[in-house]
């Protein structure tokens, strides 16, 4: 019997949670980072990043299919023993906690820089932490329903971006590969951060009520994120010149300033406000994963207490830590490097280790 049968999620919720975890604030600055590395060929880097995310997702689902009732924390203890498994489980727990921390404070930086300049950081943090705590403490069912609602809101954002089509000049993207493959390959690195979030499938899989559809679900989630990233990359690259795009912290928001609607004075503020609500899903999903992991490692403490601990810790940090633009870039840099290990390297490593273990057991059985 599946120990996670009590509260399961549908395939659509599985897709929306993973896709929502990938809609970080970093997506708004991705065109600038691609402009610095790949130039107008950054859209090719986005596709290559999606390919790497799908390869890692493939290994992840292959691993989970062999142990459909286990999460990554259970698999670590199963294959690495008590101490080795505990070490990996703690590393994964730290990753989910740090990812939630990085996503949350990147969000705070954008709010403080663009919308609420004079509001104290801790007050902004508290406004987001209260609903976040409610969602996280109520578990996977609440998180799934919350993501369904947010997905419906997020549909409006790509449509708003299409309003700039009459202002863009796609000939600026030509010729393709004008500087060769080197800059394009170099540009894959920043795109990998934007696809982080699919690794939450390591935790979500046992809750999925249609496990045979997991590969399809993670493919759809990654592809939805690919469409969003391609849209913002192509539109900003075709609107701004290669020299101009690197001057903006958030090229996507700057792009929205050119949109004019008679009954809306600042479309960019409207767009950013809606995107902030959508990006809130990212830190909530990672924080829920961290709370779940703490529950596995310290089962004697209730999930509500773990959620309260994380919430109060972030609120306490917000009294002293006021992220600037360089600090926001730095924290996302460390998140990306941590993610390269957990999201992109760990799934194939676990799969190979699992296959080697299975082969070893078979040989011992024959002997």
UniProtKB/TrEMBL annotation:
Keywords attached to this entry: Germination, Membrane, Transmembrane, Transmembrane helix, Transport
Pfam families: Spore_permease
Membrane topology: Multi-pass membrane protein
Keyword Membrane: yes
Record's subcellular location: Membrane
Transmembrane segments: 12-30, 42-64, 85-111, 117-136, 148-165, 185-207, 219-240, 272-293, 305-321, 333-354
InterPro entries recorded: Spore_GerAB
Location, primary (coarse class): membrane
Top-level taxon of the source organism: Bacteria
UniProt entry tagged with the keyword DNA-binding: no
Family: Belongs to the amino acid-polyamine-organocation (APC) superfamily. Spore germination protein (SGP) (TC 2.A.3.9) family.
Record-linked NCBIfam families: 2A0309
Protein name: GerAB/ArcD/ProY family transporter
Naturally occurring in which organism (per UniProt): Paenibacillus gyeongsangnamensis
